Sequence to fold (371 residues):
Amino acid sequence: MGCGNKDNLPKSYPMVGGDGTQSYAQNSSYQKGVMDAAKELIHEAITNKLDLNIMGLSHTTGTFHVADLGCSSGPNTFSAMQNIIEAVELKLIQLAEHQDPSALEFQVFFSDQYDNDFNTLFKTLPHSRRYFAAGVPGSFYGRLFPKSCLHFVHSCYALHWLSKVPEEIVDRNSPSWNSDSIHCTGSVKGVAEAYSARFMNDVEAFLNARTQEVVPGGLIVILILAVPDGIPFPKTAAGVLYDVFGSCLIDMAKMGLISEEKVYSFNLPIYHATPKELETLIQRNKYFSIERMEELNHPMRNTPFTAEDYTSNLRPVFEEIIKDHFGNEYVNQIFHNYTIKIAENLSIIEEKTNDIIDLFILLKRIISITD
Fold:
């Protein structure tokens, strides 16, 4: 995939670039909170699970390779990468035979889709960074790096994005045609199953690619937005938020501003799995062991959100999808209406905030006889 035709790659859904008031860079404090909550767990993972001897990096000089998959346009990715590097340097200092952490160099690969705003990302690189930086455009559902190249992989709030919307839910002739929802929250039988199957295939592809790229003993940290086992997705806060967004589109179609056909054919390319689903999918891959999986204590979990807060967090994530499907003309109106409807449903959403899980997953590349 890394050397393939760009036209054959999965659909791209970039965040809003630049550093303006509606950019992802200025409206991703919640994602930053997830990384902050995972900081100590990453330090523990590197301290207790990363074996530099196996990697041949404890006795000699070398280069430690880190990749952030789904880096977007910063600045969150810089904080995450600095945290990883500091933890590795601390581990080197603690090794009696390797007192000088400067003997090890660091190469960080910032990776995201082709139309990610890499210009803003590299314009804002920290001047005091202790690593070499490179951009790697492409989909993480395929190969991005040479074999046995990476020692540590980080991915935050990225793996719940699907490579594409399930084909059967946009086919009018399919019994799973999703005509009454923009996600798997409606009444059409088979839609949730189609989303789940697409997610299963995508995670399998993600892990298969990393199997080739991560060195034996290397680590992967995945931070992902999940939902609890046993709670139907439409009953969760995310389900309500997506339904509210869908109702805004329906209202605008009734007003004649956008076509009903456009609304019926619009589906969010996102799937929020349960911890059990994720555990089952990872265990199917025989090359990674689950070293740790637990819910993070997000620092903003108990912070009251206004309707405007919800919109400012959602717009940088969904704006490009809306533009791609409906055009640019009514984007402001859609998000204005969304803010109003969120305010009307705020008490319902607040009751369900505990039905969303920020999940920390630590994987270790198993050392096999074929490596």
